[in-house]
Amino acid sequence: GFYHSWCDICVDGSPIDILGYFKYAKYVITDTFHGSVISLITNANFVAKIRTNRNKLYDLLGRSAKNPLRM
């Protein structure tokens, strides 16, 4: 893990730990493509902040069954 001065707690976990955090989270807030993918895989409720990765995220979210525009 990395140290971020803006975090109250920095968590360093194994890949299995990280998947568990996503799977058992009430909500996930992410601005990364991989965070969105893991949220979809673990069926987590999530919000994705769009930034410079917008093309990949628009494509991913457009294909997702969780896309609110497709419901």
How would you describe this structure in keywords?
single chain, 71 residues, mainly alpha, two-stranded parallel sheet, 41% helix, 8% strand
Protein model, in words:
This protein is mainly alpha-helical and 71 residues long. Helix content is 41%, strand content 8%. It contains three helices and two strands, in the order αβαβα. A two-stranded parallel sheet has the order 1-2. β1, α2 and β2 form a beta-alpha-beta unit. The mean pLDDT is 83.
Radius of gyration of CA atoms, rounded to a whole number? 13 Å
Q: Supply the number of helical segments.
A: 3
Sheet with the most strands, sense and barrel status: 2 strands, parallel
Helix content: 40-55%
Shape: globular
Distance between the termini: 36 Å
Mean pLDDT: 83
Percent in strands = 5-15%
Strand order of the largest sheet: 1-2
SSE pattern: HEHEH
What would you say about this model in short?
The chain has helices at residues 15-24, 33-41, 54-63; strands spanning 28-30, 46-48. It has 71 residues and is mainly alpha-helical.
List the helices and strands and how they pair.
Blueprint: H1 15-24, E1 28-30, H2 33-41, E2 46-48, H3 54-63
Parallel strand pairs: 1-2
